[in-house]
Design brief:
about 0% strand
Length: about 160
């Protein structure tokens, strides 16, 4: 009986993947370690990034923008700027930390600009007009978003010291 109980407890420890408090009262209490928290944070960040990219893609390619967006008196270029600030900022958080910050910033600006260029190209097939000025504001937004990430990253680094 003890052998079976130990085997079950060992399997529970493996399944849970966390530290387990001794089982004197026949209950398992998992204690989360930092590794599992980092995994969850990465998944959340990836979902936020993918949602941002998907929202930009859909809103840029629909033949007629939704009425709620049309009612804003904000310029189309300002919307491009803020959309790509959000895209670049969220993209930076999912890139590997093994990269240097300058490489992350450069990769973010280039990939966001290519994404914006692809969308501008595809707009020609959806009845919307592609504009070079939109791509310029996409690039500006990506640059601002990447620099915001750099500033945020530096502030967190100095705060941890």
């Amino acid at each position: 009986m003890d052998h079976t109980k130990n085997l079950i407890l060992r399997q529970l420890k493996i399944l849970i993947g966390h530290l387990v408090i001794p089982l004197e009262k026949q209950q398992v209490i998992p204690v989360f370690n930092m590794l599992s928290i980092k995994k969850y944070l990465f998944v959340i960040r990836a979902v936020v990034f993918m949602s941002t990219a998907l929202a930009i893609l859909i809103l840029s390619l629909v033949p007629q923008p939704p009425e709620i967006i049309s009612e804003f008196s904000v310029s189309d270029k300002i919307m491009h700027l803020f959309a790509y600030i959000a895209l670049a900022f969220t993209m930076d958080f999912i890139l590997p930390r093994s990269f240097k910050v300058k490489k992350i910033i450069l990769f973010t600006i280039i990939s966001s600009t290519l994404f914006g260029g692809l969308i501008e190209f595809l707009q020609g097939f959806t009845g919307r007009s592609p504009e070079l000025l939109d791509l310029l504001f996409d690039t500006a937004g990506a640059s601002i978003g990447a620099l915001l990430y750099f500033t945020f990253n530096k502030a967190v680094y100095y705060y941890k010291k």
